[in-house]
UniProtKB/TrEMBL annotation:
Sequence ranges assigned to domain HDOD in this UniProt record: 189-377
Superkingdom to which the source organism belongs: Bacteria
Name assigned to this protein: EAL and modified HD-GYP domain-containing signal transduction protein
Organism (species): Pseudogulbenkiania subflava DSM 22618
SMART domains documented for this protein: EAL (SM00052)
Domain EAL: 1-195
PANTHER family: CYCLIC DI-GMP PHOSPHODIESTERASE CDGJ (PTHR33525:SF4), PTHR33525
Length: 394
């Protein structure tokens, strides 16, 4: 909060469960990466942070990794732990991150802490009102005031704490006096280890985009996370992405490699996509793409049909209404309309793909007539789609 008690930002922390008060047995880097991946994928950024700042705790391992570059620099404040010991390499890294637009905050600041050497790069300095006696806190606040930083009183839990800090002219406040921490949870799906490793190898070998795209087409979790990331504020884009090849092109191989590495180090088997669900989604996607080709639709329309088919079961996967899922995906209005089966020229393609899963296939003849599709190309596309998915070995 600022001096007028207006909300200026959030501090984001990782907790393994609703009841946990700390990160638990996780190593520092693992906890830090969980915060990053949750912010980028599972929680999203726009609805959680809005136009506010995100203060994210980072240790030395996270600072020296390349994962931070995946975040929207202008909106993120890197909260440095007091125990961080500056080295020439670390100072150079902090200078670079500062130049990229990241704000630097000193957490639990004390002039006796090893991290005090980094004060000249800081924009925010957090002073723990409970760690020091009143006179020591007043002295520390006065000393820091001579630096061009925003002073934030942290662990403010009582009216007395708040009154003291306000009288000392502190610029901002954080603590239970204003609000208790809130635990946000989300259902998480993880991509296949095999597919993630395959993509990393392809990128290392500078493979063709089509080869890279082909792997995304085999994994619903990977493709969902890719489009969510590339269309998020983290990617800094002003346009929505409607195909996997476009997403790869916009991100570039270096940033894509960095992002895949982050997925790999935070992945586990708990959120693995059910094989039958993945198979159905990919069959729909390929079938719709082939139908588009059979009707001589442009390539971009065929690619759109694939993505729509792939994402048509996200509501089942996340066990929530499609409208809720779409709130967290920056897809085009057309994609959203079709996925909710609202009127659009592409909607009958999705309806036809779903109708084929009914053993009676009652609605298939009518939908084929709507699309101007004769039995032969319909049957051929259906068989080819089923064969293609079998070849993938899902």
């Amino acid at each position: 909060m600022n001096r007028n008690q207006q909300l200026i930002g959030y501090e984001l922390l990782f907790r393994p469960s609703l009841e946990a008060e700390g990160a638990g047995p996780l190593a520092a880097l693992q906890a830090d990466t969980q915060v990053l991946v949750n912010t980028l994928h599972n929680m999203g950024t726009s609805w959680l942070i809005g136009n506010k700042l995100a203060f994210i705790n980072v240790g030395e391992a996270m600072l020296t990794s390349e994962f931070l570059e995946l975040l929207p620099a202008r909106r993120v404040i890197l909260d440095l732990m007091p125990e961080i010991t500056p080295s020439n390499e670390l100072i150079a890294r902090i200078k670079y991150l500062h130049a990229q637009g990241f704000g630097i905050a000193m957490d639990g600041f004390s002039f006796n802490a090893p991290s005090a050497q980094l004060l000249e790069y800081a924009k925010y300095v957090k002073l723990d009102v409970q760690k020091h006696g009143t006179s020591d806190f007043q002295m520390l606040a006065a000393q820091v005031r001579s630096y061009p930083v925003i002073r934030i009183a942290e662990k403010v839990e009582t009216h007395e704490h708040f009154h003291l800090c306000r009288e000392l002219g502190m610029d901002g406040f954080q603590g239970y006096y204003f609000a208790k921490p809130e635990t946000l949870s989300a259902k998480v799906i993880h991509p296949s280890f095999t597919h993630t490793l395959e993509l990393l190898n392809l990128l290392r070998m500078d493979a063709e985009i089509k080869e890279v795209e082909a792997v995304f087409k085999r994994d619903i979790a990977l493709s969902y996370k890719l489009l969510r990331f590339v269309n998020s504020a983290a990617a800094g884009l002003n346009t929505t992405i409607s195909s996997f090849s476009h997403a790869v092109t916009v991100l570039g191989y270096k940033r894509l490699y960095r992002w895949l590495t982050l997925l790999l180090v935070t992945a586990n088997e708990d959120g693995k996509t059910p094989p039958a669900l993945q198979k159905t989604a990919i069959t729909r996607a390929r079938f719709m793409e082939l139908l588009g080709s059979a009707l001589n639709l442009p390539n971009d329309a065929c690619e759109s049909l694939f993505v729509i088919g792939m994402f048509s079961l996200l509501d089942v996967l996340f066990d929530m209404p499609m409208t809720t899922v779409l709130e967290h995906l920056h897809l085009s209005d057309q994609f959203k309309q079709v996925l909710q089966e609202q009127p659009d020229r592409l909607t009958p393609f999705l309806q036809l793909a779903k109708a084929c899963e009914d053993k009676e296939m009652r609605d298939v003849p009518q939908l084929c007539r709507e699309l101007g599709l004769s039995p032969e190309p319909f049957n051929q596309a259906h068989v080819e789609a089923l064969a293609w998915v079998e070849e993938l070995g899902l």
